[in-house]
Design goal:
By secondary structure, the chain is mainly alpha-helical. It contains two helices and two strands; from the N terminus they run H-E-E-H. The chain is elongated, with a radius of gyration of 12 Å.
Length: 47
């Protein structure tokens, strides 16, 4: 699995069983996902 595929499908909210922050994707992750989805609608490999 590529990093981009993983990133697009599931944000990381835990590492080694420990919750990161409040356990939910934050605003930066959401903005990156939105940009990634917009880009892959017009270019790149479709999943």
């Amino acid at each position: 699995m590529s990093v981009s595929c993983f990133f697009a499908s599931e944000p990381m909210v835990k590492i080694d069983g420990r919750t990161i922050g409040d356990g939910r994707p934050g605003p930066v992750t959401k903005a990156l996902q939105k940009a990634f989805h917009a880009l892959t609608k017009t270019s790149g490999v479709r999943y």
